[in-house]
Amino acid sequence: MEDCIFCKIINKEIPADIIYEDENLLAFLDIRPVNKGHALLIPKKHAADMTSSDDETLSQLIVGVKKLAQAIMTATGAAGFNLGVNTGAASGQVVFHTHFHIIPRFANDGLKSWPHSDSEPKTRADVAAEIKKFL
Ligand code: 5GP
Ligand code: ZN
Fold first, then answer.
1. Which has the closest alpha carbon to 7: 46, 52, 65?
2. Mean pLDDT across the chain, nearest whole number?
3. Atom number in ligand 1 closest to CA 32
4. Predicted local distance difference test score (pLDDT) of residue 65
5. If we measure between CA atoms, which residue out of 87, 71, 85 comes closest to residue 37?
């Protein structure tokens, strides 16, 4: 798609540190990594975010995550990884081409998870009931 930075990377119009490419997927290092080895896995088929990608593409992506994460962990010596899929501007999504962040994690790397809060059983039950209406 025109004006999409990730489509430009797919089309080799702008450079990237590509670590994997096949018919459907491309993976490259994030230009502003959270940790060493932070990679982005994207489908070659443009969609604004994962809710707009078709199921076949999403299946390819998650299988790709497994393969890439294992390689990244081995290469970097990471002990784990976070999979991040920002969806929508409110979540922090900046590039509107479906992408999965694979962020290697190291023991005591100082990164904090998002903050949790306490909740009431009644509130949880109400929220669960509301969500179930749409499934
Ligand atoms: P988002 O916030 O949309 O989930 O994340 C987009 C990510 O893409 C960011 O982590 C950002 O550093 C990365 N990024 C943005 N532009 C480029 C680029 O031109 N090249 C590479 N390799 N990464 C990019
Ligand atoms: Zn695109």
1. 46
2. 98
3. 12
4. 98
5. 71
Among all ligands shown, which has an atom nearest to the Cα of 16? 1
99 is an active site residue: yes
Catalytic residue among 97, 99, 101, 116: 99
Residue 126 is predicted with a pLDDT of 98
- Structure-block tokens of residue 52: 């707009």
DSSP codes, the chain: -TT-HHHHHHTTSS---EEEE-SSEEEEE-SS-SSTT-EEEEESS--SSTTTS-HHHHHHHHHHHHHHHHHHHHHHT-SEEEEE---SGGGT--S-S--EEEEEE-TT----PPPP----HHHHHHHHHHHHTT-
pLDDT (tens digit per residue) in 92-106: 999 999 999 999 999
User: Contact at 8 Å (CB) between 101 and 85?
Assistant: yes
Ligand nearest to the CA of 4: 2
Stretch 117-127: mean pLDDT: 98
**Separation of CA 83 and ligand 1 centre (Å):** 15
Average pLDDT over residues 65-79: 98
